[in-house]
């Protein structure tokens, strides 16, 4: 059985990815320091797949901790690197925390991959590296711009560190997946997104409002240059996104370019109002919301050209927006102890 190491594997996207690797027959080793997740996620994964992944509570920003795990699992064929902090606003307030965690993490991972001959890396990048693109949809050739936040900058810097490292050694190969906006939860409602505190992202805010945890949803701006005036994003189902990582590892183990980038989205933009309507339609819940001013730093509209992922990686988003939004609601009800 082929083995992969998944950093950040108890997090939101990481946990869904662990499930997809196990379903595809891989053995999975997780490294996570539980700074933004909890150990019960491993139970959720086991209850979905019938297999318990090996789990190490360890900090990827600590060189020795990464060495301890990689030295025990030097038979792994790939590392999927999710472990990072991801709150844009917090990164503006605490840039050094973000640079330390997100940059030191990739440095340690690459260093130990070289030392233990684990040759393939899949990296979690983001469409944030494109900023507000001049042309839509965004292809992988669209320019990478100066990021709006320290968080965004850590994604750009991570990609640069990966490319420089690959250039210095003939051994390693890497794929950077630039995620658009991951939403939803596993169809079993046994794992999902667990935002700590007030959610930054639209869908957890919607589900928390619908369940009564928040008073109402603020829609930031209805005067954008979009059909209904609200901002547009490309919302990608988290299980579909997870499957792209399995495809990426297969591709890395074939003969191809040493560094490749893929956009991972649906190829379709949805406005904030369209998401609200999809939520109301698919769950039967009415949502309280109000229109407020635009939020600083938000781009107007962005969605992916996924032709490269569809044709080269052999991956395509499959789930509909309604089933994805509904899966987030089923998860929210489960987390709050309501019957699903
Ligand atoms: P998440 O916070 O749910 O998961 C990240 C996991 O990494 C958490 O379990 C956390 O405990 C762990 N972690 C953080 N720092 C660590 C460290 N130093 N050592 C060990 N573990 C550590 O976030 P997510 O939404 O699952 O995101 C996963 C990756 O995808 C991140 O790199 C994020 O930047 C990237 N990404 C996320 C989105 C999104 O909207 N969720 C979009 C684009 C890219």
Task: Summarize the model shown.
By secondary structure, the chain is an alpha/beta fold.
Q: Mind explaining what this structure looks like?
A:
With 340 residues, the chain is of the alpha/beta class. The chain folds into two domains: 3-183 and 236-264, Rossmann fold; 202-233 and 267-335, Alpha-Beta Complex (UDP-galactose 4-epimerase, domain 1), CATH 3.90.25.10. The protein has eleven helices and 13 strands. It has helices spanning 12-23, 40-49, 63-72, 88-93, 95-115, 150-168, 202-210, 238-252, 272-283, 307-313, 321-335; strands at residues 3-7, 27-32, 54-57, 78-81, 120-126, 173-179, 181-183, 217-220, 232-233, 235-237, 259-264, 270-271, 289-292. Strands 3-2-1-4-5-6-11 form a seven-stranded parallel β-sheet, sandwiched between helices. Helix 1 links the parallel strand 1 (3-7) and strand 2 (27-32). Helix 7 (202-210) packs across helix 11. The longest helix is centred in the first third of the chain and has 21 residues, at 95-115. The radius of gyration is 19 Å and the shape is globular. Bound molecules: nicotinamide-adenine-dinucleotide (NAD). The site of nicotinamide-adenine-dinucleotide (NAD) has 28 residues, from helix 1, strand 2, helix 5, strand 5 and strand 7. Nicotinamide-adenine-dinucleotide binds at residues 8, 10-14, 31-37, 59-61, 82-86, 101, 105, 124, 126, 179, 181-182.
Number of helices: 11
Reported CATH architecture of the largest domain: 3-Layer(aba) Sandwich
Strand percentage lies at 15-25%
- Return residue spans where pLDDT drops below 50 for at least 5 consecutive residues: none
Order of helices and strands: EHEHEHEHHEHEEHEEEHEEHEHH
Number of individual domains: 2
